[in-house]
Design brief:
218 residues; 9 helices; Tetracycline Repressor, domain 2; homotetramer; Arc Repressor Mutant, subunit A; DNA-binding; 2 domains; two-stranded antiparallel ribbon
Chain lengths: 218, 218, 218, 218
Amino acid sequence: MDIPDSLPASNRDVDGGPSRRLKRAEKVEATRARLFEAAIATVGEYGYAGASVARVTEHAGVASGTFYNYFESRQDLLDQLLPAISRQLHLHVRERVLTAEDSATARERARISAFFEFLGDAPHLFKMLSEGRVQAPEGFHRHLQQQTESYRRAMRYELERGNLRVTDPDEIEVATQMLLASREYLSERFCFVDGRVTRPPDFVVDAYMKFVSAALFK
Amino acid sequence: MDIPDSLPASNRDVDGGPSRRLKRAEKVEATRARLFEAAIATVGEYGYAGASVARVTEHAGVASGTFYNYFESRQDLLDQLLPAISRQLHLHVRERVLTAEDSATARERARISAFFEFLGDAPHLFKMLSEGRVQAPEGFHRHLQQQTESYRRAMRYELERGNLRVTDPDEIEVATQMLLASREYLSERFCFVDGRVTRPPDFVVDAYMKFVSAALFK
Amino acid sequence: MDIPDSLPASNRDVDGGPSRRLKRAEKVEATRARLFEAAIATVGEYGYAGASVARVTEHAGVASGTFYNYFESRQDLLDQLLPAISRQLHLHVRERVLTAEDSATARERARISAFFEFLGDAPHLFKMLSEGRVQAPEGFHRHLQQQTESYRRAMRYELERGNLRVTDPDEIEVATQMLLASREYLSERFCFVDGRVTRPPDFVVDAYMKFVSAALFK
Amino acid sequence: MDIPDSLPASNRDVDGGPSRRLKRAEKVEATRARLFEAAIATVGEYGYAGASVARVTEHAGVASGTFYNYFESRQDLLDQLLPAISRQLHLHVRERVLTAEDSATARERARISAFFEFLGDAPHLFKMLSEGRVQAPEGFHRHLQQQTESYRRAMRYELERGNLRVTDPDEIEVATQMLLASREYLSERFCFVDGRVTRPPDFVVDAYMKFVSAALFK
DNA sequence: AATGAATGAGAGTTCATTCAT
DNA sequence: AATGAATGAACTCTCATTCAT
């Protein structure tokens, strides 16, 4: 999975000339990206708690002091990780939904499938998702808000089109939480086989859709 | 909530003679119990990461070295915490289910209600549940297995009585995971108000039951 | 108080021609002066230890690397600070002495008053004086020598005019040290009120003069 | 110079039996004393800023972590240093004063002589005295208060016996500060020869006494 | 069985200095 | 001459664990 898109915007020169300044800015941006990717890899391998500054910078191939040219603190970086990835996930899911057949269930199937797909392509995200809540609460909070809001918008969309069995806002909110919860638990239950990450068996999505369709979608 | 029941089986003397040996064994057991309770309280207050051996032993009123007469390591204790509490939860839920009206939905309502009830009575368990996955993975694994097995048994029970809409084992397994996931997310979403732990509003259980009934129960 | 005068002699061009060379030399000199002033301000605010190269250069509006075009090291700059200010103090005191009534005691009164006056006008010098001994020993040494020499010359002056009760050189040297010591301690004891720097109460100078007159001046 | 007297009181067993407990407490006290002495030596050699925990513990022959069994922080130790020594100085001076001839000048001579004596026996105290103000402000503050109060009491004592030329409290306070200042400056000026610490030449005390007698003592 | 002093690896962070640009 | 990213040694402090008592 590519992360660059999710990185903080760099102040790229707009004029095309490869001036000295541009080159330098590019190098800076490259270092930041390397630290970011190194952090993701390190968290993926050792967990948040194990992602020490020393390990991250070693993985990135820079001196430990360099870290603090780019991030205020270890926590600062950690808190940025999940939101950046979360945005990637959001874009990925949206793309799948947009190209799905035009029906509420097809879109929902696209959502859950895209989620599994995303995780399967970036196995280290599992650790991030499950640990983020504890070790990088700030980042996790933003991640959760983003994912929840994303799902709420989807539900509103279907509601406006009259595709939902339920109309009460409270009930829809409860259902939304249940869907979010389910996709996380299901991925944990079915995407791990012998410590390796894989796509879940087909019946998982089918059963999920059957369950959700009966309860939520017309 | 009482914890003692959930402690690892101690080698209690069964014969009533208050011999010196018995007394000593009792004293030993008491120390273990105090460490255990101190650990729960400390994790509840400071989180897993903040539950240092020093803090736990201080809370228990023993010297830090004493700790290692009872537990292999800090991790060892941490891993025992959640399963012990998990068993408490299991017993609490079972009691509520046994006294519930004789219908699948009444029992399910008892399950989710008992869960919220349990958490509400022991607010520090939230920290344990949400952190346990990360900081005490071994213990969390056993906790999860226990809760899952408990729910699976419940589903089998209803299936045998013909109370389920679905009969495929795979589908039932998926549904089970979804229910487990939901109760956890819903508690996080609705049981926190301004940092304090409370029972969720009534509509949460109602909406949950409506959703589940439509999809799962006859 | 003006600082520029106290700067290390710059190689100023004396001829008036505004050649390009001159301009460049002026610019260079200006940068050095800005660094110098920034250093004084920074030490005044944060103390010697808090006067990091980063803070000084930021205050001066130049890049950190630029610093090393002008000073060998951080210590090098720090060591130059106090002598520069010390020279200012010397000039200030001399001016007051020259305009004083023509008597030994009037001159001594002018000396101590001018000292308090100087400190009161530049409160951040307190920090420099009290920290300088430790953090910029080289600079402090030169400062001390300068002040001592200044006082010794004053004593010689009075001696030659027959204004002193004592004539033994050793005794005069001891007395000189005592006067220097006294003015420093008295300023610390009486010029701080609630963290703010002020002129000492009148009785301080009066008592000082009474003491000194009885012991030293005819 | 012995430091032990100035150490925080240890909980010594009062009964004479060399029990196990006693032994242990003694060992603990010994470690604390070694750290304390190591700190004094290290500050004497490297200055306060150079007295890192690593250097102190290495000098004391203990592991770095051990430090924190005895002191809250590096600063904590540093702040204790000067008051402890200050108390030693106080006792030393008092002893000399008590055995001095019964006259105000004899006592004052005893005071200044004892001060020089003390410094001469513990050369590393010079660095402490001159740096303490900056690097261990809390400790220095207490030191200064102690020394000042000690001198004020002496002045009061002489005043009550009618041995002073001046009687105004303000004037006495100013004089007190001048004496304190003088002994410090004089020691710096006359006790260092080629980087080594020695007793000052005889004429220093004589000149000091002549000066002070003329101004202050009857 | 209980103690708690001692350990030392490892953590996050700072900052004077260098040097390619 | 000016830049500022990169460096890495040094810092203070924590804490699980050991072991002599």
